[in-house]
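Here is the promised in-class demo. Please do not try to memorize the tokens; focus on the logic of going from shape to residues.
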């Protein structure tokens, strides 16, 4: 795949290439991949408000609406499969064929909870065709270790467990994995662990640094997701 001269990899190894750039500025770099697996801005403006002397924490950029998510899905088209995380409170992405549930642990979802119920699950949208396979696995994927503490240790408030991403990629067709919203790099690490090529974009350099470190350290987190 030819790369435009104005963009250079932030990190690269035999399987993974990561760019510190806006994915919408360089669709030609990732659009030819075979499957899209990504955790985009949900459009929920997630943040922790300032209080008791603690500064406000803004989790990720462009989270005030689903424009970035929808633009990437539109560019991706209607033919190739995509796995896209999202909030059940926002509109379902175009082309969704099935919705999976990521059930997180009970150390999550306190912020914004209603009537005493934690927000401890997220939607995973399967978009376009994945081909026909026997329905052997549950559509509820359960994390078995603390998700909040995991994210804190990684250094990204929305970090997904690598084992969760491995499970999802294992159900995808063969070929190159694209993640236009790479964040802390869990999708890229998972693809690499499975021997898959992957292309990632992350607009925030501090998260690129985290992703590059995890890739260079050969990160694993076995046991995060129940069978």
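The designed amino acids, position by position:
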């Amino acid at each position: 795949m030819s790369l435009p001269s104005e963009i250079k990899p932030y990190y690269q190894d035999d399987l993974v290439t990561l760019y510190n750039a806006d994915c919408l500025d360089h669709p030609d770099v990732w659009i030819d991949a075979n499957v899209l697996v990504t955790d985009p801005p949900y459009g929920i403006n997630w943040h922790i408000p300032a209080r008791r002397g603690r500064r406000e924490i803004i989790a990720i950029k462009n989270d005030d609406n689903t424009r970035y998510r929808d633009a990437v899905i539109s560019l991706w088209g209607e033919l190739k499969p995509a796995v896209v995380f999202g909030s059940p409170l926002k509109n379902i992405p175009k082309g969704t064929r099935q919705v999976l549930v990521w059930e997180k642990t009970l150390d999550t979802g306190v912020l914004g909870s209603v009537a005493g119920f934690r927000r401890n699950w997220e939607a995973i949208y399967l978009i376009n065709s994945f081909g026909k396979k026997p329905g052997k696995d549950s559509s509820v994927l359960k994390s078995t270790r603390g998700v909040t503490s995991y994210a804190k240790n990684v250094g990204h408030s929305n970090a997904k467990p690598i084992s969760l991403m491995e499970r999802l990629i294992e159900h995808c067709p063969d070929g190159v994995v694209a993640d236009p919203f790479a964040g802390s790099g869990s999708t890229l690490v998972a693809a690499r662990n499975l021997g898959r090529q992957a292309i990632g974009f992350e607009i925030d350099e501090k998260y690129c640094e985290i992703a590059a470190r995890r890739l260079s350290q050969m990160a694993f987190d076995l046991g995060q997701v129940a069978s």
